[in-house]
Amino acid sequence: MAGFQFSGLTASFGGERVLGPLTFGVEEGERIALVGRSGAGKSTLIKLIHERVDGHASLVPQDLGLVNALPVFHNVFIGQLDRHPTWYNSLTLIRPFRKDRDAVRSLLRELSMEEKFWIPTASLSGGQRQRVAIARALYRNADLLLADEPISALDGPMANLIMEALQQRFTTSVVALHDVDMALSFATRIIGIQDGQIALDEPSSRLTAADITPLY
Amino acid sequence: MTLSHIRKLMLSSLLLFTSFAVSAQPFVFTAIPDEDETKLVERFRGIADYLQEELGVEVRYIPVKSYAAAISAFRNNQVQLAWFGGLSGVQARELVPGSEALAQGVEDEAFYNYFIAHTSTGLEMSDTLPEEMRGKTFTFGSKGSTSGRLIPEYHIRRVFNEAPEDVFSRVGFSGNHTRTLRLVEAGTYELGAINFAVWEKELADGNIDTDEVKVIWKTPAYPNYQWSIRGDVDERYGDGFKEKVRQALLNMDDPELLESFPRSGFIPTENENYEPIRSVAEQIGILD
Amino acid sequence: MYLSPTARISLLFLAIAVAGLFVADIAITASNPWRDLGRFFLGVATPDFFSTEGLATALLRTVAFAFVGVALGSACGFLLSLVYRFYPVRIFCAFIRAIHELFWALIFLQFFGFHPLTGVLAIAIPYSGIFAKVYSEILEEADPGPGRLLPPGTGVISAFLYTRIPDCWVQLRTYTAYRLECGLRSSAILGFVGLPTLGFYLETSFSQGLYSEAGAMLILFYVLIATIPIWVRPRLLPVYMVGAPFFLGDGMPIIWGNVERFFTQDIVPAPLRDGEGLASLGHWLHDLLVNEALPGIWNTVVLTQIALVATGILTLLAFPLISNHFGGPIRRTGGHVFLVIARSTPEYILAYILLQLWGPSMLPAVVALALHNGGIIGHLIGRQTNTLQLRPDAPSGFNRYSWELVPRVYRSFLAFLFYRWEIIMRETAILGILGIYTLGFYVDSAIQQIRFDRAMVLILITALLNIGIDVLGRYIRRKLALQTMPTC
């Protein structure tokens, strides 16, 4: 999946339109930050894109979508379930293969949570859980990253580390961010959403924090 | 540890299985559960030992919980021989073409029943079923029993011209003769019907409190218990097997074995002898 | 006067039960019931563990049948739960669980005879239906989120194993273990129709008045159930699963011709079998309905309604026995023992015991059903009150009971009661085998007369009646917005 162009994106909730209709396009290699007040429609837009690309993307939803009863390893491994036959996956559930263990372990090392390898995600803190969801997205290794507030529960240094990792691994990405500075430093293009419509769409090089603030 | 345990376990069960496979085709019989089970098991284990000796094949007795179970086992060829009552024998032989009544007890040629009453009813021995029975509580034996159900019901309908449920205030099925006796003795039911052989034996053994329960009527005679055998036993156990079984039963003269039934001996019989039972069963609606 | 919907429905059911008492056959007919009861308790107090040679074997068989039956039932139930959303599957499951284990056993006895398969299937089939329903409810509650963000192309099975099972695993395991306890009870009562489990020997001892023997068996059964947490360990389960089939006993060989005969001849209505035509069939059905089914249904319904309300009353009386809000630890321990015994004893065995002691009427059945079901619900409600925090100046004694506790637990009390409504009816029907004139009595009579065609029609009617009550119970629970977890 390289770039894409979708038009007629709309969403309604309870009979009331909350998003669109709008047209949304991404070029290959672009890193897009979605900004705007909470409730403006960023999460809805990310969900819509995920549907439109038929799931061919690494997704980090706001609610993370972790299987709480499974340990960190399996929650990350879920990202590649489609690459193995059923028997392989079933066996992995009981006893993972060494090469998968090593791959996931090195990924977690990058996110500095290697020691949580066998801990069920239910017993992790909010920030740790967020990193597991990110690890899953990284392990999934799709061309496109769709992430909804992926660093909301992380502190400064860790947030930077994660954003860098995402920037490196994914050529194309659409990330909803509430941190304006982070958006400016991460993205190549900023899209502001207001009341379900695109209120701003500029390359980040042409913007400053002051240009974005009115959206909030 | 567990693994060796499992292995041992599987091995032993395997041996268990093969041991059954080797001694295939034991000759199996059952009996209607018309009395206390302990007594039945004791009695029929003795019979099994006796038959095994006489017939030269492995003989097993299996106890069952109901008359119907005895009939089904016979019908399903899980038992080949059975000690049936008059009615259960008729039902069973109807269901298994070629099966035969082999032998009956000397007493079974002209079997009879007692109607018994708790003394509080004030009823005494009489020549017919007294009208005062009406409105009291009454228990049969088992639902499928000849002497516990069929014959008593026949006479109740004959005398009162009504179904038992309409004659009595409460009608129960105790399950077997010993229990009918105990229930009437205890006053749980005021009246009951019991086969004479059980009554006489319990009386002789001193197991009846005659201050509490007494006989009030004796039924006319009818044919009852018999040994019935499936028609295909000769194919399965060799030619002449059926006759061998018949002879073994007729030759039984061990007083202890006979006493346990209690019968004074066994005599030959045939299916036709049980026609009266069939016609009564059809009249009452137990047989189609 | 305004009455809340829960109060109104309670009063309505109370009124129905009271009306039922007028038409029901309630009496103690034994001339000296208390002497017999005394002898029974004396027997329990002086148990004789060594009288019956088969006692140890019977216990082993009871456990083996329970394990194999529940294991098979849970495997089939699990597979069914995966397709439970399809309407025909739901109907099928509702149908097989509406027929009591004992009825299934009576059916299989007719063609498998005393083969272990009879007992295994008698447990496994109704349990499959129950497992399918409960498993599917548990699986439905799993978080659907993780499933949505799987990579496209992920296999259905992999997706299921990774995103559904882990979240539900604990609940599935807990429920299955709970069912194992129910399976032990089911297995024990199968002995009453001749399978080699505990009921077989219990019936023998009881009917002969050997109360010390019977007492020993009951005590061993309670110990077996009470110690489940000790001997049923996840690590030991595979050992039990592998071992159990070898301890079912050998029984009698299956003859397959009997199976064919049963389905192609025995259960075909007599007029059709004899080629007497449809008019004759109508007559046959009419006769069966008027003389057996209708009286059976009437008695079953009357007894069920009385037993339901009696269960409710007993529950309300019994739950304070184990509640932290009343009495000291000694009384609570006593209460626990009482409730454990009440709920561990299958109602069939309780009814059998009471029938022996009090003579035949609906009374022993009502008391047995109320004791068993009241024991179960009382235990759950009592535990629930222990989680309640009362304000420091809450009233004590009866005021605490009536003003603080009952109002707070009343809705879940009703939820459990209506959940068990259908279970009580299923048991009521089966108690007919013991001589109470409910549907089971007529089913048993038909089987005793080797008229399986009639027996099957009556079993079918019983199943439909149960499904009807199940639907009604669910409707009432939904109307009153009552929620509950499954019990057995």
Structure description:
The complex is a heterotrimer of chains A (216), B (288) and C (488). Chain A has 8 helices and 8 strands; from the N terminus they run βββαβααααβαβαββα. Chain A is an alpha/beta fold. Chain A folds into 2 domains: 129 residues, P-loop containing nucleotide triphosphate hydrolases (Rossmann fold, 3-Layer(aba) Sandwich); 76 residues, no CATH class. In chain A, the strands form 2 sheets. Chain A has a 6-stranded mixed β-sheet, with helices on both faces. A two-stranded antiparallel sheet of chain A has the order 1-2. In chain A, a hairpin with a 2-residue loop joins strand 7 and strand 8. By secondary structure, chain B is α/β, with parallel strands linked by helices. Chain B has 2 domains: 162 residues, 3-Layer(aba) Sandwich (D-Maltodextrin-Binding Protein, domain 2); 107 residues, Periplasmic binding protein-like II (D-Maltodextrin-Binding Protein, domain 2), CATH 3.40.190.10. Helices cover 44% and strands 17% of the residues of chain B. Chain B has a 6-stranded mixed β-sheet, sandwiched between helices. A 5-stranded mixed β-sheet of chain B has the order 7-6-8-5-9. Chain B is globular and about 60 Å long. The N terminus of chain B is likely disordered. Chain C folds into 2 domains: 231 residues, Orthogonal Bundle (MetI-like fold), CATH 1.10.3720; 233 residues, MetI-like fold, CATH 1.10.3720.10. Chain C is mainly alpha-helical and 488 residues long. The longest helix of chain C is centred in the middle third of the chain and has 42 residues. Chains in contact: A-C, B-C. At the B-C interface, helix 1, helix 3, strand 7 and helix 7 of B face helix 5, helix 10, helix 13 and helix 21 of C.
